[in-house]
Amino acid sequence: MPTLSRISSFDDWIDLLKEWQNDIGLNQALIERYMPGYQFEAKYGELPTSEIYFGDFKGDRRWEKVMEIPDQRMRDAALNMIVYQGDTEFASNEQQRFLVNNAPSDYDLGSLVRIMVEETRHGYQMCHLLISQFGSEGKIEAQKMLERRAFGKKNRLLNAFNDDVTHWLDFFAYTNFMDRDGKFQLSMLSHSSFAPLAQSMGPMLKEEAYHMGTGITGLRRIAKAGVIPVEIQQKYYNKWISGSLDLFGTDHSGSANWAYAWGIKGRVDEDKTTETADREHLNERARQQFYDEITKTVDRVNEVNTSETKLYVPDIRFNRHIGAYANQRWTVDGRKLTEEEWLAYAPSVLPTPADDEVLKTYFKNPNWIAPKGNLAA
After folding, report:
1. What secondary structure does DSSP assign to 65-101, as a single string?
2. What pLDDT, in 10s, does the model give residues 126-150?
């Protein structure tokens, strides 16, 4: 795609956004078909309090402008949080770009379009923050956000966002697990001492709820139909669960510690818990909370699972690339393997090209997924 010279205004960035939309197939005609009259906009919600309620600046007024943040390191941390969050929003659409051509129903295509539009709006929101608050550096980062690609160069900032999502089993697992991680990240940022960042999170969280709902409903519809073998379904659960767990970052994270101390990013339940923060294990705590929540979602799928074989959440150490268990070899049920054993084992629990080929046959069956609304256990 052609690249604009350095942007000087938000209008310049909008021109770049239109190029990006065309590049991934999210054109205006498709949006108008399912979301007539939709206009992208930045949304800033109300905050429950104007005070910072955690970290070293607890009790101070939240910072409304980036230059009110009292330390350059803190300003850099806020910018970094915004850049990474925005990058994942655009990347997820790039990953899912093929799905507009093979939706199982018009309802599902409409859901996909809504999710892609709202994820685009979330990226739009982050870039609005960058351009309106962070001067020339923010403009540069907002432009780079639309120049990176999850395909081709595969240079999105987090590796989990550089893999294609080419079919709908993959998509529903992605939206249940990866978008649920997104909910956790947005919730942690909703407590931020930087007011415009915190104000951005409420509207984003409301939209994210639909994305997760689409994921869990889709997985339940697949399990209810009973056409795709549970063993194949499970492989895509394993893929995205392990990928989602990595998104919580390293253990004993110094950057998480400082982000908490500065009030940039809190705990998921920061506004509800009375538990003293263990700043050395913030990522581990959030990861375990996420693990507990996704276990409940898999239980919900099993409520309608027609097979005697039940779906499960793999061991938290399985297939990890970030954190204390990075690149260690663990089975889905928590057994340690040698590298040689892992190479023989991995194809039995993670998707392979052969699985994708087999799925094409199942997708030809019009009953591979149950109709929406037909989910009684």
Report:
1. SGGGSS-HHHHHHHHHHHHHHHHHHHHHHHHTGGGGG
2. 999 999 999 999 999 999 999 999 9
